[in-house]
Amino acid sequence: MRPDLPSLLRRITDDAFAENDWGAPADYIPELARIKPAQFGIAVAPATGDVMTAGDATTPFSVQSVTKVFTLAIALGRSGDQLWKRVGREPSGRAFNSIMQLEQEQGRPRNPFINAGAIVTTDQVLDQREPKEALAEIVRFVRAAAGNEDIHINDRVAASEAAHGHRNAALAHFLAAYGNLRNTPERTLGTYYHHCAIEMSARDLALAGRFLVDAPGLPRLISRTRIRRINALMMTCGHYDGSGDFAYRVGIPAKSGVGGGILAVVPGIASIAVWSPGLNRYGNSLRGTHALAQLSTAMEWSVF
Ligand SMILES: NC(=O)CC[C@H](N)C(=O)O
């Protein structure tokens, strides 16, 4: 028998706080490095009924790479399958910020969820517009999905990343060298850092993820075909070189970010967000991954 969800969320949260090993926050973005690791929040937004939360579920955090899901939806909405000429749909088997593969594969990133692929997606969303117009579109989309007009970009986090963004700058320049960037590396990177610096709580993120659940009555921001495809990419590529292990342990489409957030989707059933800022060796939330494994096992939510 499946357990009662609110008490399961409380139990998962108690288990997280009983642990000693929280992992380490991202150290290459100074504004994120100083966040206390021992924090944990979880939220489940079911297809029908109210959102349920436990732990630090209303504390805002930097969603970082989780925004790649939203920018992908927007890029596909603006230019459809044209995007796939510039970026692939295969797992990379490499770290999110790997440079080597991009050179080997002549500037066409493996997928839209590694940094190189997300920089291309951002460039596509930017089109020939001013960065602030593209950012306004991204923030509007996220606010509409979450139903919260207060969601915003933390400029300090964006500036902190820009000041230390040598690897991303290298990736953007590689892309430009292979003719796979339409805007200057500086403009595209500035836009990319700012959308990565969107801040919201686990509760808001779970609500924002409902557009990928595909159930009657939920906000319909993109077509069903696109929902299915974005979920497929989240399943295969959402955790970088940890994607196989995540599918094995959790078994649902999900996207992580170095701010410690993970957005996960149980198709037709619920959107889930967890946040715990300490990361595992793949750069994915350590306690967050563990919590999702507990939740999907107890609820029998694995799609397999
Ligand atoms: N995995 C992540 O969340 C990485 C996002 C971060 N902004 C970066 O570009 O490095």
From TrEMBL:
Q: Which UniProt keywords apply?
A: Acetylation, Hydrolase
Does Kinase show up as a keyword for this record? no
Q: Short name of one Pfam family for this protein?
A: Glutaminase
The record's annotation in InterPro entries points to: Beta-lactam/transpept-like, Glutaminase
The record ties this protein, via HAMAP family, to: Glutaminase (MF_00313)
Complexes and interactors = Homotetramer.
What is the protein name given in its UniProt record?
Glutaminase
Q: Which gene encodes it?
A: glsA
